[in-house]
Amino acid sequence: MTKSTIEPFFMDFSTQIDPLNTGLAFLPVMFSRNQIEYVIDSVDTSLADRSGLRYYLELLVPEFAGSSQFKRLVKMPGAEKPPARGNGSVVYEGCYFQLDELLDGFLEHQKPEFGTTEMAIIPTLTMPYITTETVENNSQLLPGATRSQASRWVLKAGLSERDFVAWGNSFFTDYMSKNRPFLTWHPNGKTIGPNQPEYLHFLLNMATVPATILRRVRVHYKRPKYNGATVEVLERGALAGGQPFQVVSVPVHPAALQFRPGDVDYYEVWLTDGNRNRISEVRTYKIDYTYRSQEQWILFTNSLGGWDTLRLLGEGSETLNTERTTAEMERPAGAPADFAELRVIQIKGSRELAISTGYFEQQSQEQLLYLSELLLAKEVYLVDSRGHQALELLTSGLVIKEDNSDLQARSFTFRMATPQFNYSTMPVAPAVMARPTKWRGVGVVQILDEYGKRTGKARPLKLQKYYVDDNTTFKPLTEKPNQPGNSDYADSLPLPGVTAGSTPYPSQALTRPTTYKRTTCINGQIGDTATIIIPAGKYGSEISQDEASQRAEAEFRQLNTQAYADQFGTCTAAPELYQVATVAGHWRYRVNNPNLFDIYLNVVDTQEPAIGNTWNLQGETRPYIYPRFSTDLSFPAKPTFDYLLIIYGTPGTTLNVKVYVDGALVSNQNYLANLDGYEQLALPIRPASGNKLYIKLT
Fold first, then answer.
1. Which long-range contacts (CB under 8 A, 24 or more apart) does 517-521 make?
2. How far apart are CA 257 and CA 188, in angstroms?
3. What is the pLDDT, as a whole number, of residue 431?
4. pLDDT by residue (tens digit) across 274-284?
5. Long-range contacts of 320-327 (CB under 8 A, 24+ apart)
6. What are the tens digits of pLDDT across the range 91-121?
């Protein structure tokens, strides 16, 4: 049931869904269950004999979930693909390495504890990794061919192959920024039973992770409460200590949200920061109080790394199948009549469960298609009064689309993963006194604020089980991540010697104009770009400099919009009067139509490296090399050299070129475009440090 209720004109604002936090910048993540290819670019394309080239990729992963310390996993050798020739060109594809299977093996699902009602952090679904590449030629390391790539994050999740091609590189940035989805593909508007377990999961791939995450719910009651209210917004739990790229597990079933039996018609759930700014989508749940003669629940992993619950309302059956191992015994002389010549050595039983979904009462086509998730799930559990029972799905085929069918249902067959050797029927066992154990902290992990910088507090990295009576380590050695929401969680404490706000990898200053120009100028003024300034050290990282810079870049992408330019961009009566900060020892170049200009530093008969944006400089990686037909560029002041302009126009036409320096007209010349449609001319001045040039071609 996707909610489409029209709200009354006079709304009680205390019952509205919290406003979306539009100031969040989302960071890229990779899918571990889709193809992750790493390519080392071919080196030295002028090398005639390439048979001796060997490429090596070293992969480093964290020592433990949540750790900022890395260990080498593997160093893989490889060879480049032979250069491909065709149509007069040569393509150097480089050396390919496939990483998805390696990385996916280090990630694991973490099933919600039976009956849990509190939010919790899941650190094992995501992981950063670092790569280092080297290239050798005939066993000799090539100079400059060693390079370390900054940490990248991977999530134990995947998209369908067709969607991955279209969304693989932008799902966690563009799609999440727009839709804020929980990690599930179940159609929104889910009908659940009053006792059904239900969970949502949310990825914190944000540049600024909220210090506190609130679970909020808008409840629609079946009948007015004592105060006459039929709708109420409630806060049902808070979680602190979440770090970037971790996953939050959010129980959203009626018991977790503390509903009184029979009170609630339907409800809507979302997550907010501590200021009640919404960070997630809103999911709607309808509670079905109808008596069902049979109702069972299957808990399984979905493609995005979360856990979904499937409600099965159809008829079912349970079958016990056995396998007997027998041995034939030699019958001794004089053996009695009841002597068994066949002895049963072992009996192994397996229980099979056949269940039907029952007819889908709403969104039948969407529900039918969604059942693909169950067939692709790697972990499946039956939920009953005793907890979770591991299942193996035996059904291997399913009709997921059926036209012209009103009532639709599907049946599944499961096998209990635990074999059965004996029979008994006992009530739930009482608590058994055992040697008392507890968990103690091991290692140290810094507590970071929403910007990734240290708070001056730390907590144990992981928890280790030990015996309370003699303080010895539990056997076998048992450890688990120490994360908020865990029942044994060891909270943070002040860490001596750590200054709040410090970080080993502070982000660098970012000052950059928007790619949009202001469109709201009046009185004939011309709109210009806005300057986005992100100060140095605003973000931090415990892993790498690049990760801190990625957060600053994410904020720039989030701010770089037309709305931002319309609000903060400048307006000038004439474009030659533009104002922009210049770097010391540099001047600024701007033109009225970038498609009509190229600029080049005239370095004939000198040792000065060529710079500019002409065609012959493309592909070079030196400073001051810009794409063709680009403008708003920064160049070093060269008092002893001339800059060359190439201007383009229709062959044989007159081109008027006006050159302004700091708003003042210094040259106004006409030129005749040659038969090739261009003209070369020397810039009439040698710009000095701080100059702002504007060149207008008519």
1. 517/565, 517/569, 518/565, 518/566, 518/569, 518/570, 518/571, 519/562, 519/565, 519/566, 520/566, 521/571
2. 18
3. 67
4. 999 999 999 99
5. 320/349, 320/350, 320/351, 320/352, 320/420, 321/349, 321/350, 321/351, 321/352, 322/347, 322/348, 322/349, 322/350, 323/347, 323/348, 323/349, 323/350
6. 888 899 999 999 999 999 999 999 999 999 9
